[in-house]
């Protein structure tokens, strides 16, 4: 490991989404939380324009001049690092160089937003080195721009915003149109269990973009009935039913729209049930979310289906669903805290027996982005 004299230390969480999947880019609602696992940054500001990064997990290094970042041209992790710096410069922030050790404990490509964790934490670090603090929504938008423009993934705002605005001990209910956030407390008797299915997220990029395009097709059809509609967020189940009656939809486009419209409704119901402590109902909504993602949005797979089925049959599990974009990656379950160790112990062998694969499960508290300055 390269020794970097730490001027400050930043920890940027990953995220897991409790409910509200594939709704963010439809201007809808999501309810994720920031994880205890994440990405760490040990930052030494420099007086020049050199950005020097040591990616400890990859045993790899990168050095670039801030005036000539060539962001988005490498096809590997450097696109995220240089892209984040470039997105800050694009947004008009003046930066100076820094030498940064980056490490972390998130599964990579597991659907827990390791890339957004990197972008948000790095943008925060580079700004902090200049003595600049910006609002979480602005930080998230810059990080999202890095992902879209320089890592070439056409993502929504959920991952970056849930990391930038995460509140310890709370899930965050986000309106992805206004970017308003409401922190929803997670009581101590509720455990959030994250399970990596061990299935790599193949297809995620191309199929993700295809789903986005299908949602846009659905909007174009629905606009013929109601021109005030901008996004699927504006569509009610009544309007959707009307469009079906008039035979306006191809089946697949209808099912994509039905997922998004019903998922937005589920997010509101889940947030309300969280507030009244009705976790049994939150769990039911999570199960329904999974089935909708499986049948209507078609982003699940046999292992994610199997894993969530096994979880639903276990004592103490309120509900389970795939989390993130899908096509492999992770599931999330809401579990009675007193039962979580038993569930983890039973799940591994059951999943292996059913699929031949190995899963990794951990429970997490909701966390937040943190900074530590050295003591004077
Ligand atoms: C990925 C994207 C998010 C969101 C989810 C699906 O994680 O980065 O913006 O669209 O998929 O909910």
UniProtKB/TrEMBL annotation:
<keyword id="KW-0418">Kinase</keyword>
<dbReference type="InterPro" id="IPR019741">
    <property type="entry name" value="Galactokinase_CS"/>
</dbReference>
<dbReference type="InterPro" id="IPR036554">
    <property type="entry name" value="GHMP_kinase_C_sf"/>
</dbReference>
<dbReference type="InterPro" id="IPR019539">
    <property type="entry name" value="GalKase_N"/>
</dbReference>
<protein>
    <recommendedName>
        <fullName>Galactokinase</fullName>
        <ecNumber>2.7.1.6</ecNumber>
    </recommendedName>
</protein>
<dbReference type="InterPro" id="IPR013750">
    <property type="entry name" value="GHMP_kinase_C_dom"/>
</dbReference>
<dbReference type="InterPro" id="IPR006206">
    <property type="entry name" value="Mevalonate/galactokinase"/>
</dbReference>
<dbReference type="InterPro" id="IPR006203">
    <property type="entry name" value="GHMP_knse_ATP-bd_CS"/>
</dbReference>
<comment type="similarity">
    <text>Belongs to the GHMP kinase family. GalK subfamily.</text>
</comment>
<feature type="domain" description="Galactokinase N-terminal">
    <location>
        <begin position="7"/>
        <end position="45"/>
    </location>
</feature>
<keyword id="KW-0808">Transferase</keyword>
<dbReference type="InterPro" id="IPR006204">
    <property type="entry name" value="GHMP_kinase_N_dom"/>
</dbReference>
<feature type="domain" description="GHMP kinase N-terminal">
    <location>
        <begin position="80"/>
        <end position="165"/>
    </location>
</feature>
<keyword id="KW-0299">Galactose metabolism</keyword>
<dbReference type="InterPro" id="IPR014721">
    <property type="entry name" value="Ribsml_uS5_D2-typ_fold_subgr"/>
</dbReference>
<keyword id="KW-0067">ATP-binding</keyword>
<dbReference type="Pfam" id="PF00288">
    <property type="entry name" value="GHMP_kinases_N"/>
</dbReference>
<keyword id="KW-0547">Nucleotide-binding</keyword>
<dbReference type="InterPro" id="IPR020568">
    <property type="entry name" value="Ribosomal_Su5_D2-typ_SF"/>
</dbReference>
<dbReference type="Pfam" id="PF10509">
    <property type="entry name" value="GalKase_gal_bdg"/>
</dbReference>
<feature type="domain" description="GHMP kinase C-terminal">
    <location>
        <begin position="271"/>
        <end position="347"/>
    </location>
</feature>
<dbReference type="Pfam" id="PF08544">
    <property type="entry name" value="GHMP_kinases_C"/>
</dbReference>
<dbReference type="InterPro" id="IPR000705">
    <property type="entry name" value="Galactokinase"/>
</dbReference>
<keyword id="KW-0119">Carbohydrate metabolism</keyword>
